[in-house]
Every structure is written in structure tokens, then in C-alpha cells.
Amino acid sequence: NLPPGPKGLPIIGNLHQLGKSQHRSFHKLSQDYGPVMFLRFGVVPVVVFSTREGAEEVLKTHDLETCSRAKLTATRLFSYNYKSIGFTQYNDDWKEMRKLAMTELFSAKKLKAFRYIREEECELLVKKISKSAQTQTPVDLRKALFSLTASIVCRLGFGQKFNECDFVDMDRVEELVLESETNIGSFAFTDFFPPGIGWVIDRISGRHSDLHKAFSKLSNFIQYVIDDHLKKGPSQEHSDIVHVMLDMINKPSKAGSFKVTYDHLKGVMSDVFLAGVNPGSISMIWAMTELARHPRVMKKLQQEIRETLGDNKEKITEQDLDKVQYLKFVFQETFRLHPPAPLLLPREAMSDLKILGYDIPKNTMIEVNTYSIGRDPKYWENPNDFIPERFIDSPVEYYGQHFELLPFGAGRRICPGINTGLTIVELGLLNVLYFFDWSLPDGMTTKDIDMEEAGAFVVGKKVPLELIPTPHKW
Ligand code: HEM
């Protein structure tokens, strides 16, 4: 009793029915074939869930017992042979690395200790925008907000300040993140075709060499950061996870206990860099895009921010975040319409399963389409409209308990950086909206704002968002 799905072609299965954007292709197909859909990518069976009920079953029940991360060529490479957190199957390596990251990177204590980093980087952003404001030049918000999240995440995770770094600059960092993500999100034929055939196609098509080139660039960056830590020794300012793990690698471990290796360290660094930077910047860019398209919401939000925080503040602090409730609703609505990872990360059935009455054979790849769920009229009134007020009296939150809104996933593999990510995006936007008023460049109207998406498994705005800042007059 397999779920229904479109008929595939011999050998390639349904691969020809996937356009550039997988979540949109699945969304369109699910309108015809239903919310639980069976496809084949070459020889690999795939089931896509596009409802809250399906997501709940997969993430709450089966993720705990019978699903694990799918094993793919790209994820094996970028996780240093499954020694990271994000791409690694449920096993001892994953448990140890996740536990370590929860203590050394994501704990409430670390979140508080690193507050000054986020506040400092936001102040720098405000200074940069002020320069454009003086000359009334448009700001490329995609670049500005990417640079904000990248600077914060790399300082939190690696203690690395880009303006003091002679190895990479911000443009290179953006290139590294985007190239790595594109390669992770693209198909390797080896994964979906019979052994030998896929291998040959990957080599002839250049897929194999693209993947390895992208990985080697990321690896060089990671190695640079490690060498820098080894050269400088433990920092007085704060001890980041790289120092902690280097220390663990160098200490003799007790017989039978878990041994941290350089691959674990590099895997975790790859995670922090790839999972930590882009989703946050994408979320802020979509939020600003929706605000620019909806001047009513922009005005209401800025009014609430300025009335609550008061006039002429010199600096926004994280204590200000809890005061502005409407900002939270704006992000909830942004996440609903534009989840940065619309298909979460692919899972795989570890045994034969029965979900919502359907048989899911062992080794089936399982995808949860949070993009479809966020736009399902069964759960959302006027689902395509941007209306933050819908959350005012709603119990729905994004912490993985409500399966109609899953920007951070849910269950055992829920994003461990959820609090860090939310703090960064809320603080970033609070700064941008408190100090400046924003307008569209001359001759442009809200209808001209382009909403096209780009990206493979992390999906952002394709065309830069350029707006003109004016310092707010109190
Ligand atoms: C607004 C910001 C963020 C969003 C929207 C986001 C979203 C996500 C999503 C959807 C997943 C997959 C969950 C699943 O498959 O069920 C994930 C996993 C993950 N995220 Fe985030 N994330 C954000 C920020 C961060 C940050 C700042 C970090 C680290 C510095 C981070 C690190 C991770 C890691 C390591 C995983 C893998 C967890 C695992 O498999 O056990 N994320 N994130």
C-alpha cells in the first residue's frame, strides 16, 4: 500500500519532474497526488509529506525510532565522513557532537556570555548603514545582513573576526557558503543510479569535480581557522568550541571512552558555518522584503519598536528584544511563507514503516515539505498573504511543538541553534528598523519587488533587496 504518486520513467524515475526548486515541484505535484506522495529518484524510493499530520508522524514518532539522516555523497563529504551533527545518522558520533555543541555553543550560559559579540556586530552594521544614509545611497540588504550573520556566527563559533583575518574577506565567505550549499543541495547521480552508472555520469558531467572543488575550498578555510587557533593558543576573550575540541583531541582519553578526532572538529565547524550563517541572513532578508512590500506592517512595526524602546537610544541591547511582541509575529509570518530550509534535511527509513496508513519501505528517503504546510489553506486563512496579526491570539509557535510551522524542524533533530538564530535575526532587524526609515529607490513601487527564490536546500531571495535608509528623526 504505497502512497500515490506520479508515474515515473524507466531508469530516472521522477527526476525529470523536479524543476530547479524541489520544494515548489513537490508542492505542485502534491496538489494532484495528495499530501503523502511516492516518487522515485532513479532507483531510490522517496516519500514526501506535505501535511501537518505527516510531519508530526515523521518528526515526533519515527524520527525517534525508525528514521535517520539520509546518506548522500555530498553530505558524507561535507560532514567529514559523518562526523558532524547535521548530516550524521543517529549514532554515538552524533550524540557526542550534539551534546558538546549544546554545552559549548548553544547553552543559555554561552548565549549570555557572547551577547556582547552580537551587540557589537549590530552596532557596526548601523554605522555602515549610516554612511549610505548620509548620501541617500541604496543599501544592498542581502550583502549587509549576510555580512552581519556571518560575522556573528564566525566570532561565536570560531573566535574569528573577518576584519582581522588575512585569509578570507566577506565576499569570499559568501562565495564559500553559497558554493558549498549549492553543491550539497544538488544531485549526485551516484546516489540515485545503479552502482557504476551513477559514478560514470558524475565524472563525465563534472558533478564529481565540482563537489570536490567546493569541499576543498571549505576545507582550506576550516584548516586555516584551526591553524590560527593552534598558533594563538587559548584565547583570554572567550574559549570557543574550536579551542575546547582541540583540547579534547590533545588530551589522552580513558580506555573505552569517546575519542574526539580532527574529523569531528572539522565536521562541527562545517556545520556551524553552513547551518549557522545563511538561514539567519535569509530570514532577515525575507522579513525586510515583506516589510518593504507591506508599508502598513512596516509602519506599525516601527511605531511599536520606537514607542516601546523610547526616543534617541544610542544602542539596542538584547534586553530590548522581549519588549517588542509584534516583531516576533513578523518573524513567525516570515518563517511561515519563507522557511529557509523548506524541506528540512532529508531522512531515511531505517526499517519498513507504516505512516498514515501507507507502507514506507526500508531505505526510502523521507522529505517533509514545510513550504507546503506553511501555505496550506486547511491551517491558514488567506495562506498566501503576509498578515503577522494572525499570530496575535494564536497558540502556534516555532519551537517544534506545532507541526504547521516548522522553520527549525522538530523532534530529536530540531535545530540546536534555534535560540542563537532567533536572537541574531531579531536583534539585527530591531537595529535596522529602530535607527532608519526605509524607502524604495526612485521609480520603484512595491509591485516591482522581485520575490524569486534561489538555492538548493537553503532557499533565499534571488535578486538583491536594495532600499534607501534615512536616519529616523525623533
Ligand atoms: C534563523 C536561523 C536558523 C534557522 C531557520 C535554522 C533552521 C534549521 C533547520 C530547518 C534544521 C533542520 C532540522 C530538521 O531536519 O528537523 C536545522 C538544523 C541544524 N541547525 Fe539550524 N537554523 C538556524 C540557525 C542555526 C545556527 C545559528 C546554527 C549554529 C551556529 C545552527 C545549527 C544547526 C545544526 C548543527 C543543525 C543540525 C541538527 C541535527 O541534525 O541534529 N542553526 N536548522
List keywords for this structure.
alpha+beta, Cytochrome p450, 18 helices, 50% helix, 9% strand, globular, binds protoporphyrin IX containing FE
Low-confidence stretches: none
CATH superfamily: Cytochrome P450
* Silhouette: globular
Q: Into how many domains do the coordinates divide?
A: 1
Computed CA radius of gyration, to the nearest angstrom: 22 Å
In CATH terms, what is the architecture?
Answer: Orthogonal Bundle
Number of helices: 18
Query: Do you know the CATH topology?
Result: Cytochrome p450
Range of strand content: 5-15%
**SSE run:** HEEHEHHHHEHHHHHHHHHHEEEEHHEEEE
The computed structural class is alpha+beta
Q: Helix fraction?
A: 40-55%
Main pleated-sheet profile:
5 strands, mixed
* The CATH top-level class label: Mainly Alpha
Question: Can you describe this structure?
Answer:
- This protein is α+β, with helices and mostly antiparallel strands and 474 residues long.
- The chain has one domain (15-471): Cytochrome P450 (Cytochrome p450, Orthogonal Bundle), CATH 1.10.630.
- The chain is 50% helix and 9% strand.
- The chain has 18 helices and twelve strands.
- The protein has helices spanning 22-33, 52-65, 73-78, 92-104, 108-113, 115-135, 141-158, 170-185, 189-192, 197-205, 207-232, 241-250, 262-276, 278-293, 295-309, 325-337, 370-374, 418-435; strands at 36-41, 44-49, 67-69, 139-140, 347-349, 353-355, 358-360, 365-368, 436-439, 453-454, 460-461, 466-471.
- A hairpin with a 5-residue loop joins β10 (453-454) and β11.
- The N and C termini lie far apart (65 Å).
- Bound molecules: protoporphyrin IX containing FE (HEM).
